[in-house]
Specification:
Elements lengths: L21 H14 L3 H15 L4 E6 L5 H9 L5 E7 L2 H12 L7 E5 L10 E7 L7 H14 E12 L5 H17 L4 H11 L8 H10 L4 E8 L2 E7 L2
Parallel strand pairs: 1-2, 1-4, 2-3, 4-5
Antiparallel strand pairs: 5-7, 6-7
Helix pairs in contact: 2-3
């Protein structure tokens, strides 16, 4: 049974920067479902994309794997013994819990979970790389280098699935999207206090880009096409293709 997210339900004297610690890990499935519109659709579609993109005897990397939802989706979607999946997360609490989650299933394609920074992962022989709401937590100065490393490690025809919270290029448009997202959270049971304190906690930690900034950077490192396949409010998922 999912634990209810009430981390920000009480007024805090000081709102610390958001981090993926044990308290967040405990409520993460509830938090992500109530905070990210279309999260289940995105995870399901990652599996669908894997069906057409993952090739025999290749690697799949899930960078910022959290509790392994995307890795599990890929493992179940493609034919048995097609690939090896490596999930990586910087949070020790997330890695420990993810390993326990993965071990509860008999999977058609093996998943191994490692602790580390996405920037330090050596990508090799990859047919698919997933970054599901991960890049936004990585220092902006590291983002181009990480994407270049992913591009280099992908086989021809390989794809990067990149899901991100994005900002709109105009202030008024951005505020409109933020307001819609906050109402989505209220509709899912979060109070005004929770919405406000969570926003404060993320302010210095989650640094978002516009879609155009993502597209420009992806093409700069070599991807030939960037397809936005999903968007709701200020959340999007895109597929970057290596020719």
């Amino acid at each position: 049974m999912k634990k209810h997210d009430n981390i920000y339900a009480k007024a805090l004297n000081k709102v610390d920067d958001f981090k993926f610690d044990e308290s967040v890990v405990d409520v993460f499935p509830d938090m992500i479902q109530r905070s990210v519109p279309g999260y289940e659709t995105i995870v399901h579609t990652i599996g669908e994309l894997a069906k057409s993109s993952v090739t025999p005897n290749s690697m799949v990397y899930d960078l910022g794997c959290s509790l392994g939802a995307a890795s599990l989706s890929v493992s179940r979607a493609v034919s048995a013994n097609t690939c090896e999946i490596i999930g990586v997360d910087a949070s020790s609490a997330m890695v420990e819990r993810c390993r326990r989650v993965v071990q509860t299933f008999t999977l058609p394609n093996p998943i191994s979970i490692e602790q580390g920074l996405a920037q330090d992962v050596d990508i090799n022989n990859a047919s698919m790389v997933v970054m599901n709401f991960t890049l936004q937590f990585i220092p902006p100065s590291d983002r181009e280098g990480l994407l270049a490393s992913i591009y280099k490690g992908l086989n021809p025809g390989g794809i990067l699935v990149l899901s991100e919270k994005v900002k709109h290029p105009t202030r008024s448009g951005n505020e409109l999207l933020i307001d819609l997202h906050h109402q989505f959270k209220r509709d899912n049971g979060y109070s005004e206090l929770e919405v406000s304190q969570k926003r404060a906690a993320l302010e210095k930690v989650m640094l978002t880009d516009t879609f155009n900034e993502h597209e420009t950077r992806l093409k700069k490192v070599g991807f030939t096409d960037v397809v936005m396949w999903y968007k709701c409010y200020n959340f999007t998922s895109m597929v970057a293709i290596k020719a």
